[in-house]
Amino acid sequence: MMELQKRKRIRLEKYNYIQNGYYFITICTNDRKQVLCDKDCIIIEEDNSFVLSEIGDIVLMSIGNIEKSYSGVNIENYVIMPNHIHLLISINKNAETSISKIIQQTKGLVTRKAGFPVWQKSFYDHIIRNENDYYEIVRYIQMNPLKWQNDRYYLVGIE
């Protein structure tokens, strides 16, 4: 009898994702398709961002809605890549929501506006534990577009 593969746990066990702190979030597109940038994935040199597609513009709008929708939640930094996004989110003690709820509702908003399933099923998180970790994540987010051509998915998933 074939044994079913156990799903890998991607959340930190026994961690309360409602508590205040900083979280580095990565959300990938469905099948890692490059639907968030224009067809040539052109980088705007002034700010290391991509020229966004219509779907990418919806994602940008939904990121902007997070702070408006959730008191005590701030988007510290973010980048929209061709097939994924990175968010650096802070939650303060007054927030009455969790990272999972924020991401679920943000992904749902993008999918509804796009009219098709944009995202993979879950998301990746990293709980930022100290100041060095925080600044390392900020640098990673800022430099990520410059590394895109070396990404293993650079030529994969182009429609």
TrEMBL record:
Name the record gives this protein: Transposase
Highest taxon, organism lineage: Bacteria
Transposase IS200-like domain span: 18-144
GO biological process entries: DNA transposition
A GO term for molecular function: sequence-specific DNA binding
Species for this entry: Acetobacterium paludosum
